[in-house]
Amino acid sequence: MIRVVLPAHLRTLARVQGEVQLAVPAEVTIDSVLDALEAQYPVLSGAVRDHITKKRRPFVRFFACEQDLSLDPTNLPLPEPVVKGSEPLLIVGAIAGG
Amino acid sequence: MSGVRVLVGTHKGAFILNSDGKREKWDVSGPFFGGWDIYHMKGSPADPNRLYASQSTGWFGQMVQRSNDGGKTWETVGNKFAYDSETGTHKWYDGTPHPWEFKRVWHFEPSLDDPDTVYAGVEDAAFFRSADGGQNWQEMPGLRRHGTGSSWQPGAGGLCLHTIILDPSDKNRMFIAISAAGAFRTDDGAKTWKPINRGLRSNYIPEQTAEVGHCVHHIAKHRSRPNTLFMQKHWDVMRTDNAGDSWEEVSGNLPTDFGFVIDVHAHEPETIYVVPIKSDSEHYPIDGKLQVFRSRTGGNEWEPLTKGLPQKDCYVNVLRDAMAVDSLDSCGIYFGTTGGQVFASADAGDSWTPIVNNLPAVLSVEVQTMA
Prior knowledge:
The structure holds two protein chains of two kinds.
Chain A: E1 2-5, H1 8-14, E2 20-22, H2 30-40, E3 60-64, E4 67-68, H3 80-84, E5 89-93
Chain B: E1 3-10, E2 13-20, E3 27-32, E4 37-43, E5 51-57, E6 61-67, E7 75-77, E8 89-91, E9 97-99, E10 104-110, E11 118-123, E12 126-130, E13 138-139, E14 160-166, E15 174-179, E16 182-186, E17 194-195, E18 216-220, E19 229-233, E20 237-240, E21 248-249, E22 258-264, E23 272-277, E24 292-295, E25 303-305, E26 323-325, E27 333-336, E28 342-345, E29 353-356, E30 362-370
Antiparallel strand pairs in B: 1-2, 1-30, 2-3, 4-5, 5-6, 6-7, 8-9, 10-11, 11-12, 12-13, 14-15, 15-16, 16-17, 18-19, 19-20, 20-21, 22-23, 23-24, 24-25, 26-27, 27-28, 28-29
């Protein structure tokens, strides 16, 4: 299972606490993880990436294994620890605003 | 027993204020959707327990919330607002072409007779409709495809469609307003629209009486007067008696005619309310005194209403969708401030009391009168 840490507002929307665990059937990439996330929690559709363009929302970042993956192509395989479930993918709301 | 439900959208969540018909004691519930901007919340005239709320942040975009029990519980419904076909461009602040991009819903207007049908005014300016209680949204593209669309330019708050008025006497007639394109009317159920800005004069655009380009802040209408509308423009308070074909200024003796809100008494179609704001560069009341002005003559002759309102050191604003009226026998008037106060008057504005004092900045106020 793939572990994903959501920001507080999205945990509230999805009505979950702590990490979520996702079964990702395809190669584990940001795209496939988000596909699985939106399938399991439809309320999050459009909240992390645009409904139509699938582009990451500007104030959302993706971190894993102490790396910022936000600007990487979203169809690249995620780091092995994320694929194995020993490390989570962090979806982070940027520090901005008041 | 009669009662009133006040729906308050704020910069950090939604609040619902309930009272009986006396409007003396209030029950405050919320925050709902804490931490999110609630640009607007409105109930269905056909089913008062059906509410719609626009929830958004710059981080996570737009959510649409729906309640079937008057706001006790909520469910998240559809948030996919896709423009119809090729989006094209409007003008950006610097005059260059800019692609249409959805940002948020500014205003929901539920149908007068079907709780599942609701219209949405969005930024960048477009008109959407849902016929299934907000699950799915379709743009009604006739407005954005109006020939002037490519010349529309955002105001300071963005290119927002913020006002939607349905006509109870004619289902095919609707009015909308966009900052800073102006007002538009459809007479064929939103298939086609015409700009209704003749008579407006704006000194911040190159052609002061242009067909579009006016920063209309809000429009209000009494349900018994199909052709009369009142407008608070960026500067100037205006009225029309021919459904917008031409407007005349009715600012009269107002101390300043800049402002955002305007509304009409529930039972007196010529009694209207505004909250004058000092200027377009100083968005607060003159001299720190919060004053509602009332005209009982449909404009031109205005009286200040101050009893119960702060008359010293008050530097709040009252935003465009933050005033509403109830329809009890003695008409109640309500407005919210950017300082987090919601004021109520149970005597048509003669006196005011704060229902709450310390909410986040109030973005919108709507009122439901319960039988």
